[in-house]
Description:
This protein has helices spanning 2-19, 34-52, 60-67, 71-79, 93-103, 119-125, 129-132, 163-168, 181-193, 220-234; strands at residues 57-58, 85-86, 90-92, 110-115, 135-142, 151-152, 155-159, 174-177, 198-201, 214-217, 248-251, 257-260. By secondary structure, it is α/β, with parallel strands linked by helices.
Amino acid sequence: MPFLTVDVVCESYYNHAMMTEGFPRPGGTQEVPEVVVMRLPHYLRALVQLGQQGVEVVSSQELGRQVQVTPAQIRKDLSYFGRFGKQGRGYSVSYLLQELRRIMGLDREWQVALVGVGRLGRALLGYPGFASDGFKLIAAFDADPQMVGQTIGNIVVQPIYRLQEVLRASDIQIAIVAVPASETQRVVDQLVGCNVQAILNYAPVATQVPPQVKVRSIDPVLALQSMTFYLQAQGDKPDMNGTRRGQTQRLLRGGYRITQW
């Protein structure tokens, strides 16, 4: 479930930015574009893998190859936060990894709540990747009386009516929402009222939140639909026999062929 951690890591960046005076930027005033923030977790993951392989110095060319980004784009992205490498020598993997963790707020542990403990919610509670990346699921809530009281992944599922009580008494600023679409906005409103600043939403519905609250939505169906565009486009390309996708050919007497859609 690697995409999950990337999205939660982005939320930690926004939380960290809200609680600090900002990061070094050219001229001290330039805003960091959101698309840059979305690429930071990919750089981080690549650096972790390089470190595990014993690589000490990496060039922007090699880092770009790892994450499918041009070297120029990597240098521009990192320039929003300072200078991390030397021309002709590349980046120190350990130093850049340390700095990215600081920039993204991953040099601390983030407490996370889960709302909705259906099949998806149970899978999230059992996912081991959160803790290793600095995220600790400490509370889970559900409206189903049959789910309340169950222990999943060392977490006792609590009734939804205790959401505000528990969150206001904790340091939880990130929440994952895995409830039916019809309940999503109501749950999000409750989370915002409890000072949750970042929400990872699995419901196939857009939500309304104040400007200071960041929402990331994960919808596998939308992702699949975006891929079928390319598959459909490939349908116009003939195969090695000259037949296009979606076409069939039938051999007639005399060796003639007809194409059927």
